[in-house]
Amino acid sequence: MDQIEAHKSFGGQQLRFSHDSDTLNCAMTFSVYLPPQAEQGPVPALYWLSGLTCTDENFMTKAGAQQYAAKYGMAIIAPDTSPRGDEIPDDPEGSYDAGLGAGFYVNATASPWNKHYHMYDYVVSELPALVNQQLPIDGTKISISGHSMGGHGALTIALRNPRQYKSASAFAPICSPINCPWGNKALDLYLGDDQQAWKQYDTSELIKSSSPSHHLPVLIDQGDRDDFLQEQLKTELLEAACRSAPYPMTIRMQPGYDHSYYFIASFIGEHLTFHAQYL
What is the pLDDT of residue 211? Predict the structure, then answer.
């Protein structure tokens, strides 16, 4: 784990690291914000998962989250969105919605993706083990959040590992990838055509089988002017699943907001306040 960047921010440190990943079989980078409280000892942490085409840097440079993380004494850990490198397979059509930058936070089982594309295991296991060992992070106090594809990742990971996370949130998440073009393409490539296997990475499907004893606090914000809302995000399917389960999830439709980081920056303070209650 090599430090490749460091910047002072709101009394804390904005850091970037590289390391060799056994899970992904390649070199990876990730970003970490350590609040000033980390100088005194381990602090709780929020994992942030970014969306299609993003890297570990987009959220850290655009969302304005550091000021709130410093206020609450909370670290933020942002992994990359897929494995990287010349040897890593990319979308055969050269499109943005699969391959590099579009790992979808799944464990690929289909060739050639299954050699590298294990972002689920990377986020759930390998990266936390690394940062808990080498940084002042309290691994018993962890929450998770994300945007779009990363919102899908955050919700599915939290729902499948409810004892690992204290809370979860998302901005404009892909709520049912088995029912949208982005999800259909990615899950077919990474997992093959067994659509039953796809359901383990679908938030709306996971809600249907969730146990009340494992319910987590969850906050979701979605802009009603989001160009992807109807075709790709399918918020109404998640709302229906929560009503049917029932799962006490807070889903807020924000008037006038779109899919951009302007939307995220507008509400990131409320999301960090939400997580601080549980961390």
Answer: 85
